Amino acid sequence: MVIFVDVYEGKAKKVIPLDDGKAILEFKDDATAFNGEKKGRFRGKGWLNAQISAHLFRVLEENGIKTHFIGVAGDNRLIVERLKMYPLEVVVRNVVAGSLKKRLPLTEGTELPEPIVELYYKDDSLGDPMINQYHAKVLGISEIELKEMESIALRVNEILRKYFKEKGIILVDFKLEFGKNSRGEIVLGDEISPDTCRFWDAETKESLDKDVFRFDRGDLLSAYERLYERITGDSRS
């Protein structure tokens, strides 16, 4: 018998822990931007994010990256390994976009000579502020742990950047979250979806991610569906 314990609900997902060291990751149809100031609901978004995340986790697993992904548990649900999550967002940037263009004197769309890795402290009440390795140490995260997360993040970038290039898509930037499993291993968790990444069409530079919703650039579902079809070869129609 499977026992459900406390449910943790965020803006776009629910985490439903089970009693066997696993959890259900349920993707909602809700969309938020600007720290929750802008909100919307798009029927089918949860399905798309779940399926895209599952597909990309499989790509990473096939290339030697340990993730919490176990399998698909329904249209908008994944089964994952339960992790003790670090309160960090690890962001990798390949192209100038988003907040980076406010911090560097570079034009949006400029390709960086090498990837930039940034750390953000996960706390909605503080606005998820950017931090450095010294702040992380104060939070109890060791230098060894940080270096391992950075190393994994750069390897993920290497794998996915090549993968998306073959699909005619630019991986502009993306957010990763990590946790420790019951064996003490640092493992990639959370999701990899258009909610947490920036994807541009290589020819048109059109957004295929949540920026469509953030900046009213078109229909969010259409953008997510196009990304899904490009990477999986499947059509929802």
From TrEMBL:
Gene Ontology MF: a single term: phosphoribosylaminoimidazolesuccinocarboxamide synthase activity
Keyword field contains Ligase: yes
- Extract the Pfam families matched here: SAICAR_synt
Q: Which InterPro entries match?
A: SAICAR_synt/ADE2_N, SAICAR_synt_PurC, SAICAR_synth, SAICAR_synthetase, SAICAR_synthetase_CS
The UniProt keyword set, sorted, is: ATP-binding, Ligase, Nucleotide-binding, Purine biosynthesis
Location of the SAICAR synthetase/ADE2 N-terminal domain:
7-230
Q: In which pathway does it act?
A: Purine metabolism; IMP biosynthesis via de novo pathway; 5-amino-1-(5-phospho-D-ribosyl)imidazole-4-carboxamide from 5-amino-1-(5-phospho-D-ribosyl)imidazole-4-carboxylate: step 1/2
Q: What EC designation does it have? A: 6.3.2.6
Task: Name the reaction it catalyses.
Answer: 5-amino-1-(5-phospho-D-ribosyl)imidazole-4-carboxylate + L-aspartate + ATP = (2S)-2-[5-amino-1-(5-phospho-beta-D-ribosyl)imidazole-4-carboxamido]succinate + ADP + phosphate + 2 H(+)
The entry assigns this protein to a family as follows: Belongs to the SAICAR synthetase family.
The UniProt entry, under NCBIfam families, shows: purC
In Swiss-Prot or TrEMBL terms, this protein is called Phosphoribosylaminoimidazole-succinocarboxamide synthase
Q: Which organism's genome codes for this protein?
A: Thermococcus peptonophilus
- Top-level taxonomy: Archaea, Methanobacteriati, Methanobacteriota, Thermococci, Thermococcales
